[in-house]
Amino acid sequence: MDSLDRAIIAELESDGRLTNVELAGRVGLTPGPCLRRVQRLEADGVIRGYRAVIDPGSIGRSFEVLLDLTLEGQDATTVARFEETMTGLDEVRELRRLFGTPDYFARVAVEDLDAYE
């Protein structure tokens, strides 16, 4: 990875919707070589995808809660069932397994405090 690859990554982190022509202009390349670099970065797994950042309030989820969660049981069945349940909930925006206490960190977005409770 060289400085041009890093420049491409920085520009795409800032605005993932740039056209290839815009991106090429910003990093000082012509469109062909720029596209090949982006495709290589994607194929190599450096760029793993593109996503939209949604305003939570516009979809009725303006109340965000950060949770530290500790499981009573640590066996494989309990952990798998918990993770399956949590990842199946639309309100759960992020779930991370931690080592130590607590066992998990979750970011949950709901309409309001009543919906959370």
Automatic annotation (TrEMBL):
The keyword DNA-binding applies. Coiled coil: none annotated. Residues 1-62 form the HTH asnC-type domain. It comes from the Bacteria. Keywords: DNA-binding, Transcription, Transcription regulation. It holds the Pfam family AsnC_trans_reg. PROSITE patterns: HTH_ASNC_1, HTH_ASNC_2. One of its GO terms (molecular function) is sequence-specific DNA binding. One of its GO terms (biological process) is response to amino acid. InterPro entries: ArsR-like_HTH, AsnC-type_HTH_dom, Dimeric_a/b-barrel, Tscrpt_reg_AsnC-like, Tscrpt_reg_AsnC/Lrp_C, Tscrpt_reg_HTH_AsnC-type_CS, WH-like_DNA-bd_sf, WH_DNA-bd_sf. The keyword Glycoprotein does not apply. GO terms for cellular component: cytosol. CDD domains: HTH_ARSR. This is Lrp/AsnC family transcriptional regulator. It comes from Nocardia cyriacigeorgica.
